Amino acid sequence: MQDYTILWGAAIKPGETLREDAHRLPMQPLGKWGLVAVADGAGGKGVYVGKWAQTLVAQLPDTPFEDAEAVFNWLKPIATQFYRDNKEDAQKNEHTWTKFLQEGSAATLTALWLPDRSDGNNAPEQSACMMYGDSPILQYHTLTKKLVMPEHLRELSSFSGRTSLVNWLGSHPFQHGYCHFSRFDPTDQTILLATDAMAQMILIRYLLHHEQDPTCRQQLELAKVMGGIHAQLIDANQKADLPPDFDEWLHILLHTLNTAEPEPDENRFGNLLHQYYNQGLIEEDDYTLIAIKNNTPTREFE
Amino acid sequence: MSQNPHLPVTGSNQTGNLIATGNKLLQQAKGAYSAKIRRDQPTALVFLIDQSGSMGGGSLTIDGKTMSKADAAARIVNAALRELLKKSTKNDELRNYIDIAIIGYGKESKANMAWSGKLAGKTWVNMAELDENAEKTVISSWVFFPDGSSEEEKATVSSWFKPVASGLTPMLSAIQKATDLVREWIANGHNSSFPPVVINITDGEATDAKAPALLKAAETLSELRTDDGQVLFLNCHLSETEGDSVFFPNDKNELPPDEYARLLFDMSSVMPEKYRSEVEQIKKAASGLNYKGMTFNADGTRLVQFITVGTSY
């Protein structure tokens, strides 16, 4: 995977011991595609959500899904098997069992297939992504310094309210319309896969840096009028002793990420995120971030 | 800046409609309502259950089942407590996220704590105590999978309360008792917690006070607050008056012409902004107005579900 530098960081929710997020990095060697994925087990829905998130990312196919029906067909056997694998354990505790039966296990799922054009591979030009829920793929264009959010999570307010989740339980059905696909050229950008709390902090830092831009200002003002957690986070980030320049701050954040698995002894990413949490700059949650930088020579900006 | 589409604007048709129908402009409960509910930062839930003689009447149909008002009240409380137990289960662990108090009013001239059995005499009960003192029944439960197949399993259903209907309706006493309990709970190290929620399940026919005194008591209760927001006072009205189930009305005209329903509407807190999408999903409508924390002849567990769904644990 010589085309890309892939960095990752993961931190468990402050005060917790069990990770509910999961991520996957490309295996070596690979064929035409390198798969990167994150899943966020929903703490508020079901049990064994961390295990479910791990199951989903681990079983993603090596090549991109064609459409939502393909995702649904992929999910079916995984869902039934997950139930069978965890049924006995769930039955040991009455409440776990009740919740397992009624709510299942729920997680977001975001996958990005990167074309590997190294070593003369005949790979496609564009990367392919699939998102179900509020763990977005963010594209930070290195030449224009623009942050592009996915269509279904375009604004800060998009993160309010209930998100769509993948569940093994059929009574919380897979919704084809919640499966978002896109393809893009991965050059000249840093691609970020983030779980929701991390993504919201990145977006807030970006909006604050670009407060003079009317659309950014409008998002910030709307969040303040609505009150609640976004207003608190914006206020804390405005007052924080962090580089106001988004590029500079992102550089600091990405500098704490790891270059390879396994997790190092010192979790610099986790330490930084927990500091941010203690300062009220980020919502309490598990945090996962994968950053992908393209190594091909930067093209001239037209 | 663009106009916030969700808030009624002075001079707009929305506001005019509220005034024309005799409602006050619905002022949302103040606060962020964003505090995480944790073991070291639990929240509190108080149920006020009308157990008066008039609750023995009625023939309500809720979720397709016909029952008396007292049956409906017990059903709602039991379902709500089960929902909270489920919400407090994290993998193989039951966590004490919520302190629960239940006040009954009817059997005597003043309201009293309604816990029975081993919980009798207690004020606040945590999740573990609640679980240990439940009456448990095993039922069949079907599990459906995305591929369309299903399996039958056995599951346990817990319950705590049986229907009670006797005596008068000292609702004012119940609200005042809840106010004292909540005030003390907040002062006892819970200032940063998600604000307590008080849910009153009643047919509305108070015998110890007239409307002005009840409104004043509701206002006093709702003015209590933690750093995260004001106490939410929600009402679940069970009535013999004919009319469809109503969830979270934003106008009195959504309710049937029942004086008790309208009084409870006035007594109820306005739902905070953060629950708007949950409320609108339940109502299957998106009016952009503010909504009262009230149900009429409906499954009142919805009043609890908004806390369990829309709040972060």
What does this 3D model show about the protein?
The complex is a heterodimer of chains A (302) and B (313). By secondary structure, chain A is α+β, with helices and mostly antiparallel strands. Chain A is built from eight helices and twelve strands. In chain A, the strands form two sheets. In chain A, strands 2, 3, 4, 5, 6, 9 and 10 form a seven-stranded antiparallel β-sheet that branches. A five-stranded antiparallel β-sheet of chain A has the order 1-12-11-7-8, covered by helices on one side. The relative contact order of chain A is 0.19. Residues 298-302 of chain A have low confidence and may be disordered. In chain B, strand 8 and strand 9 (150-159) form a beta hairpin. Chain B is of the alpha/beta class and 313 residues long. Chain B starts with 12 loop residues before the first helix and ends with a helix. Helix content of chain B is 29%, strand content 22%.
Strand ordering within the main sheet of chain B: 7-6-1-10-13-15-14
Order of helices and strands of chain A: EEEHHHEEEEEEEEHHHHHE
Q: Show the largest interface.
A: A-B, 47 and 43 residues
Q: By helix and strand content of chain B, what is the structural category?
A: alpha/beta
How do the SSEs of chain B run, as a string of H and E?
Answer: HEEEHEEEEHEEHEHEEEEHHEH
What's the number of extended β-strand segments of chain A? Answer: 12
Q: What is the chains' assembly state?
A: heterodimer
Query: Roughly how many Å apart are the termini of chain A?
Result: 28 Å
Amount of beta strand of chain B: 15-25%
Shape of chain A: globular
Average per-residue pLDDT of chain A, rounded, comes to 91
Low-confidence regions of chain B = 1-24
> What share of the residues of chain A does DSSP label as strand, in percent?
15-25%
Q: What overall geometry of chain B do the principal axes of the alpha carbons give?
A: globular
Number of DSSP strand runs of chain B? 15
Q: Taking Cα atoms only, what radius of gyration of chain A do you get, to the nearest Å? A: 19 Å
The number of helical runs of chain A is 8
Q: Please report the distance between the alpha carbons of the first and last residues of chain B.
A: 34 Å
Question: What Rg of chain B, in angstroms, do the CA atoms define?
Answer: 19 Å
Mean pLDDT of chain B: 83
